[in-house]
Amino acid sequence: MVAIKRAKNLKFIQEWNRSIILNTIRHSGPISRMEIAKKQGLSPTTVTSAVHDLMEMGLVKESGVGKSSGGRKPILLQFQPDSLSVICIAVGHTSISMAEMNLEAGVKQKRTVPVGGRTGEELVDHLLQSVELFLRSDGYAGISITVPGIVDAENGIVRYNERLKLRDVPIKKLMEERTQLQTCLENDTNAIVLAEKYYGSYKDCENLLYIMIDDGIGAGIILRDSLYRGRNGGAGEFGHTSIDRSGIPCNCGNRGCLEHYAGWLGLYARILAYIHRGRITQMLELAGGDPMAITPDHFLIALNLGDELAEELLEEMAVALSVGISNILNILDPDAVILGGELAQGNERLLTKVNAQIAVENIHGAKDDILVLPASLKGDYALTGAAAVILQEIFRVPG
Amino acid sequence: MVAIKRAKNLKFIQEWNRSIILNTIRHSGPISRMEIAKKQGLSPTTVTSAVHDLMEMGLVKESGVGKSSGGRKPILLQFQPDSLSVICIAVGHTSISMAEMNLEAGVKQKRTVPVGGRTGEELVDHLLQSVELFLRSDGYAGISITVPGIVDAENGIVRYNERLKLRDVPIKKLMEERTQLQTCLENDTNAIVLAEKYYGSYKDCENLLYIMIDDGIGAGIILRDSLYRGRNGGAGEFGHTSIDRSGIPCNCGNRGCLEHYAGWLGLYARILAYIHRGRITQMLELAGGDPMAITPDHFLIALNLGDELAEELLEEMAVALSVGISNILNILDPDAVILGGELAQGNERLLTKVNAQIAVENIHGAKDDILVLPASLKGDYALTGAAAVILQEIFRVPG
DNA sequence: ACACTTATTTTGTCTATTGGAAAAAGTGCA
DNA sequence: TGCACTTTTTCCAATAGACAAAATAAGTGT
């Protein structure tokens, strides 16, 4: 049954309006009080009073005057992204990035600490300590942490991460007790798709999928403008889409899972098999002759060098992905599908091939309607993801 | 960009609270004022005043007293579902059902008019006229219309229906002009999944899929407690999930679409082909020896009679469906998947086979966690669907 | 310089919620 | 049976936020 929303009082309406006004300034600023009032259907009085509060908080500043349209010049209001900071932490399998960022996801200072083989409790302690050392002065609005693996975002608990040996770690609680700062936790892929929507090129997409192609393949899903997590945070297991009923058995119980054809672990297994069978590939040379040393980078470089095996595998990847994506398009009809992750980032040829394949396969794949697109965020996108999570929380209209 | 919510005033809060209180009485009634106040965190005064208004409107009535717990006995409040009616219209390909229903989707009076070969404008005129004749007295809260095919629910326009020759018909506008009553329009499958959630056995499902297996296969999708329609209402094309890359070509451009293996049109084509090749089946006898006369019912009956061909086709259906459903489970991880439509309704063996198959294929198909379930609404479920659409609208908490 | 515009602020009104008191209707024990 | 205590419901005055109207500020255009 639908949870009945909680009743609210006068104070709530003020907060609601203040939040709307702040977001209007954030997204449409510089803007005058009068224009906000018109845009949001509020009385000028209400806007004046809310803006007064926002200026007192330092979140908004008057910044010059606009053009007159026959009367008094409007006083323009501007959002002040540096009035507060958020601490963003992107936990990876090999390193932890940590940054102080402003309210527009701009980096103020950054630091990376190695995981250094730490796992489980030791890793958590290490993390808590590092954060404590990282904090200076105050003016922090909160902390945001992203972790790969299964995350219970609602309760702030890392449910499970194989490689980091984390199981049911109540990170949110631990961090809040230690720092007294509001803390958000989210899965890394979810965070990144939020970042693409709020700080990348996909602002207008109500329904957005981010397909992350690394060792395995996962998806971050935004539907109706907010993250979709499924029943127990189990949504987005895109890598286990079966694209071939009689394909390779997967340890998920099914056969022909997409991951085996388009994820790095699957690809790597095939590369090894080919090499074992005596096939020649530049990937081996690039890895210094050691098959165990081949990395995704070697694959991408070999691709650019025109390596035949790499080509072949790319083709397979594209076909496999296009089948899975076509199915998603039919079911969800999203505004866009983003291809990201180590094997897709900067791999334009994969994108081209996938789109071509989908155009053939799918009703929705109309000519000039390219739906599968590249990630738009470069650089510290993992940190931008963490920032997106907490900033979305901070600026969310209540109710 | 996220649409910023509209600003609100005092009147809004009153409506909001009234709506919350009404829904509390609807779902948890009979209930006392005090209990509502506690449950919703409202002051007793506020509840009293809202209840006063609701009683004046006739939506709520005092109905006896409850048990005392040491003080004054509570006066219980009860929802009055018969205080208003809604007109529900389920347009089908062969007939149009029309009913006056109360605020709990109970039928007060009903009528079915045949489509009788009417199409396009003629059909629409016929429909408008029939509704006008159907209306008696007043006390109507609105009209709800469901139509198969592509529907733009937001604007109340039937975009496209092949068989009824409808294209861009602004039904909502036409009906509202004619009757002066608020009118909702929705796709039939979407309406039915809403009905399963609000008036069936799936009340607790936040994320729910209804797979409708008729001529083709479509899906109605509820995510986070409300209908998901995709970019242009194009979501739910489940029948065009490709389950076999080298399968039968489909006019959607892809190959091996689920529809061909599990939808009636696909099944029928296969049955004809088998008969043509001389295969013996009881379906032919049931249809009086005329292959063109075979209907889904004949298939279902033959199945119960142990017909070999029907068995074979059922097995294929189950396998095909399970592949498609497994993919959905991996991506959306819903609370439940409902199998409905002519070929699934009452077809328990299909359900059993699909579940068995999924248990093998899928991580999520854990033992006692049967996710694929039968439709729970019997009888006039198409009308219940229409009712669900408008009642959900009427009782929705604003904001 | 004067009439008209537009933007912002001030002032007073309106209204839904609310806390607390009062009323209504009980319970339970001596 | 009477009296003290509870619980539910209603009444009342206070509060606070939105708002309309008026006032003020700062223009434009002729």
From TrEMBL, chains A, B:
Q: Which UniProt keywords apply?
A: Carbohydrate metabolism, Kinase, Transferase, Xylose metabolism
Does the keyword section mention Kinase? yes
GO biological process: any one? D-xylose metabolic process
User: What is a GO molecular function of this protein?
Assistant: kinase activity
Q: Which family does it belong to?
A: Belongs to the ROK (NagC/XylR) family.
According to its UniProt entry, what is the function of this protein?
Transcriptional repressor of xylose-utilizing enzymes.
Recorded hits in PANTHER family, A to Z, give: BIFUNCTIONAL UDP-N-ACETYLGLUCOSAMINE 2-EPIMERASE_N-ACETYLMANNOSAMINE KINASE, ROK (REPRESSOR, ORF, KINASE) FAMILY
- Protein name per the record: Putative NBD/HSP70 family sugar kinase
- Organism encoding this protein: Melghirimyces profundicolus
